[in-house]
């Protein structure tokens, strides 16, 4: 055991668990912790941001692009509250993100004295968003609690956690034993009898399809082996894009999934909440095999014919082995024609399609794209080919405006040798535009793209289509984005065609410095015309 402060214990425990970067903002309740970071500045990099939400989103992007734990530090009260939206996004996207926060002095917690940064019950506030929230009340408690947080975040479904400590305890010295890195709980092994039954169902199916979500991460090889063994089309939701390369003959997106669903007689759903198909697409007669590591989620939103609670890679490998030598009835004819017809429709949606082609052509195959909630983003979920896992990234089901730019910065920090591009609408971009200062200060070479129609465009479209054009609270007065970028100290350019987009984006990516591109746009094609029935429409008949 070594005598150290509570702040030292936190820093050493983070390093022991593989953390190399912390995003955050210092403050009076964190002084002892940041002093501990300073003493370890050669082992632990601190990226200071311009808002707590930015810090939390950078930690989210770090985790999302690597499957390593993203870590951020914020002051208590308003600092933690500002970060809770990002923690909610991390929960919805199944990401290991650790939020560390301070407290008011130990003796004053819960007294309601009106101490700076005091809120009524900080831990209960965080528990409304994440499952694991703990306080260390003494330096000696830190290593075990931090390890428990890492075990929790990385066992079964990935998930966020919140750790807090009062400033006097961060500064107090005591004997502390730093523990080895925490190990996640071992996933359950695939049940042999369930595997045997699933293999029999697959062998008997004439039109099986595989549907995958974000839980496929790390299991892409097993997915490819299973799909090719049975010749089944693979439908990837937006969180799984690139699990099979877009140029693989079995690769499909969710628009194709709508059509394939109508033809299928068996669905193998892997690592997905399965919400849209189960709630929106009908077909109560369709047999479903679910593979998920979460024994609770696997029963939602409806029970499957067969449930395999197991790690995705292990379960699919077991299925491939069980199918060895078995004759298969599968003849999923026509799926390639469905893909080609959708490609034709998507390519006709100009100018959106041209900008998406330019973005794809300017990026290398493994370049990462962070999509904000915007009309262009809705198109790219389907219309922009993706070739590698973890290259098309979204905020999970919370669908939060403004998350993409800071998340992309975190991903670039985690992946310094990769090209990272993010795009947003003019409305969403201004939610976190202050992090352009972070990009410049820390030399983070993300290229941001702003599609500017001076509107909250998605809402404007809904008001036009469903409310007789009664537009309210959707018109926006924006800054000159090019001048704004230059004021922050980065390159800026305005483009008005797909060709200009390609040339400018390629130039900015080659420069290796932060940059911003503005794309003025008018009305864009309605992508929702290709979506048969969103989950928000409620259950489909049948």
What would your notes on this structure say?
By secondary structure, this protein is an alpha/beta fold. It folds into three domains: 2-176, Rossmann fold, CATH 3.40.50; 192-332, 3-Layer(aba) Sandwich (Rossmann fold), CATH 3.40.50.1220; 348-530, Rossmann fold (3-Layer(aba) Sandwich), CATH 3.40.50. 39% of the residues lie in helices and 17% in strands. It contains 21 helices and 20 strands. A six-stranded parallel β-sheet has the order 3-2-4-5-7-6, sandwiched between helices. It has a six-stranded parallel β-sheet with strand order 11-10-9-12-13-14, sandwiched between helices. Helix 15 links the parallel strand 15 and strand 16 (392-393). Helix 3 packs parallel to helix 4 (78-92), helix 3 (52-66) crosses helix 16 (404-414) and helix 8 packs across helix 12 (312-323). The radius of gyration is 24 Å and the shape is globular. The model has no long low-confidence stretch (mean pLDDT 95).
